[in-house]
Amino acid sequence: MVNLRLGDAQGPRPGSLAEPFEALAELQEMGLIRRLGVSNATAEQVAEAKTIAPIVCVQSLYNLTCRQDDELIDDLAAENIAYVPFFPLGGFTPLQSAALSAVATRLESTPMSVALAWLLHRSPNILLIPGTSSGAHLRENVAGAGLSLPEEDIAELDKIGRWGLMRKWRGRPKGGPHGQAPLRIRLWRAAVPGSRRPRAEDCAATVRLAPAALRGPPRRGTTGAGTPPGAGTPHGHLAVR
């Protein structure tokens, strides 16, 4: 199986994939490739690829906090096409959330195991590829595969990323479930030149705080707005690797 890698380190980029994907389709017709997929693609590019040749897999950034592909995942599931999230645990820095830690504590598990379990509960077409650099990582990954999440915990975890999709709130004078204007907490990627971290606009978290409630300047390696006083709430500070 060969994925056509698109976009760049900052995420998907719009544009036609016809020329390179047609080349792969020709190799498939010659019997040199069995299955095709696309990686780091927009929904429009996925649709274009399917007009050229059947695909069996889409691989893109997706995890508990980066939920920009929610609709695409559901569409692919209806077509029995696999979705493979890369950085399922955040990437360079482990996912951090008070809500995630609280659920893990209740289930006597670890946050990383719970984050993987949430992905498996998210949709039946999700295939996981978590990094495993130690025996401890392997045990956490296996535990996540066997972890059953109660409905109330799934609902709590869903809230972490749902309000992070800032695109849904653009152009609205007020937003958020409590009638307060959502506040974007940007990933502090600019402090690390050449970083391959996810784009801030895709992985921003929303907290129910007014700008005046923030304190302190951005710190290297944080989400770039200081640590808000409400970091302990389910909608609080999130650090994404």
Task: Give a structural overview.
The relative contact order is 0.13. The protein has helices at residues 18-29, 43-52, 70-78, 98-106, 111-122, 135-145, 151-162, and strands spanning 2-5, 36-39, 57-61, 82-86, 183-185, 205-207. The radius of gyration is 19 Å and the shape is elongated. Helix 4 (98-106) packs across helix 5 (111-122) and helix 5 packs across helix 6. Helix 3 (70-78) links the parallel strand 3 (57-61) and strand 4 (82-86). Helices cover 31% and strands 10% of the residues. The strands form two sheets. It has a four-stranded parallel β-sheet with strand order 1-2-3-4. The chain contains seven helices and six strands; from the N terminus they run βαβαβαβααααββ. The two termini are 28 Å apart. Residues 165-241 have low confidence and may be disordered. It has 241 residues and is of the alpha/beta class.
Overall 3D form: elongated
- The proportion of strand residues reads 5-15%
* Low-confidence segments: 165-241
Helical amount: 25-40%
Radius of gyration: 19 Å
Q: Quick summary of this structure?
A:
Helix 2 links the parallel strand 2 and strand 3.
Write the layout of secondary structure elements.
Elements (H helix, E strand, L loop, with lengths): L1 E4 L12 H12 L6 E4 L3 H10 L4 E5 L8 H9 L3 E5 L11 H9 L4 H12 L12 H11 L5 H12 L20 E3 L19 E3 L34
Parallel strand pairs: 1-2, 2-3, 3-4
Antiparallel strand pairs: 5-6
Helix pairs in contact: 4-5, 5-6
